[in-house]
Structure to design on (139 residues):
């Protein structure tokens, strides 16, 4: 089973979980920790999370910001079996990850990362459609 641990500075992680639940329904394999809101640490929550991980489980650690303190704490767990770490997650990434049911190969993870990057873009008004016209034609 793929087990996901998502953590962030502040409530970003629980916000992503909330949005994913609205769009996809609840997920049993997602654990979330909003860091720096109380006296507990990322390490404490990761240790508790790893108590639920079996030897056959895959672990995907997800953080909000590459190089940030949450990501640095997660980095120290990369030596654990079947553990991978992704930084800079967005909604597209999390929705695709949560849709994976049969484990996650490195190749599929790379595909999801690339796809997620494509959803980060500047959106401009299409001048040919005219303001207020063609509202159903978003793409």
């Amino acid at each position: 089973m793929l087990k996901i641990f998502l953590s962030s500075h502040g409530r970003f992680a629980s916000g992503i979980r909330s949005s994913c639940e609205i769009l996809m329904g609840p997920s049993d394999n997602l654990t979330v920790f909003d860091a720096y809101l109380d006296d507990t640490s990322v390490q404490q929550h990761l240790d508790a999370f790893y108590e639920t991980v079996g030897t056959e489980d895959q672990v995907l650690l997800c953080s909000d910001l590459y190089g940030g303190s949450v990501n640095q704490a997660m980095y120290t767990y990369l030596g654990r079996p079947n553990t991978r770490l992704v930084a800079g997650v967005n909604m597209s990434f999390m929705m695709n990850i949560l849709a994976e049911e049969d484990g996650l190969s490195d190749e599929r993870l790379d595909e999801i990362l690339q796809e997620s990057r494509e959803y980060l873009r500047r959106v401009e008004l299409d001048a040919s459609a005219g303001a207020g016209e063609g509202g159903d034609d978003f793409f």
About this structure: The chain has a mean pLDDT of 93. Residues 105 and 111 are 10 Å apart (CA to CA). The beta strands are 2-9, 30-35, 58-63, 83-87.
